[in-house]
Write a structure and sequence with these properties.
By secondary structure, the protein is mainly α. It has seven helices and three strands, in the order H-H-E-H-H-E-E-H-H-H. A three-stranded antiparallel β-sheet has the order 1-3-2. Helix 2 (41-53) packs across helix 5 and helix 3 (58-65) packs across helix 4 (69-81).
Length: 179
């Protein structure tokens, strides 16, 4: 069976992804123009949080930031390479406590200034794109997803589509003992 390539037509999610990537790239340009090398904009949030809370485990930090353990782990790996954080054994052998290094701590005032400036710039942008401010549109989208998740919406549209050789979902399997 032949189908058309759905990636050839830009979907509604692509502009948002592009916008977020462009905004992050511009923040990175600000860092570089001011002499800050090796620090990605995505490092600011966890670095500032750690500087204010003290050492946290990866799980605690992820929960504090509202991000997944996996995403925070990947970000922390980059931060560790840049000498912004270090880790030490936690309360048990499975955990590590993440701490900010002196180098990382020295960057926090600059990153807090950039954070506040970015928030103000986004607020200005928000007001500029009225009548539907970006923050209002995002909040409305989040509320809609609380009412009916993206998983539900996608699943409804996919119907029974499954990858080759995938077992049927649990609701469609025969109960044990029936054949």
């Amino acid at each position: 069976m032949e189908s058309s390539d759905p990636t050839r037509v830009e979907g509604r999610l692509q502009p948002l992804r592009r916008l977020l990537a462009a905004m992050e790239a511009e923040i990175e340009q600000i860092y570089e123009a001011r002499g800050l090398r090796g620090v990605r904009p995505r490092y600011a949030y966890p670095l500032i949080r750690l500087a204010h809370t003290g050492p946290l485990t990866i799980r605690e930090l992820a929960e504090s930031l509202g991000q997944t353990h996996s995403a925070v782990s990947q970000t922390l790996a980059g931060m560790r390479r840049e000498g912004l954080i270090s880790s030490e054994p936690g309360a048990d052998a499975r955990t590590r406590r993440i701490t900010v290094t002196e180098h990382g701590r020295s960057l926090v005032p600059f990153l807090e200034t950039e954070w506040r400036a970015t928030e103000a710039a986004v607020a200005e942008l928000d007001d500029e794109v009225m009548p539907t401010a970006l923050s209002v549109a995002v909040t409305a989208t989040e509320a809609a997803l609380q009412r009916r998740s993206l998983t539900q919406r996608i699943s409804e549209r996919m119907g029974d589509a499954r990858p080759p050789d995938a077992p049927p979902p649990p609701a469609q399997r025969e109960p044990p003992g029936r054949a």
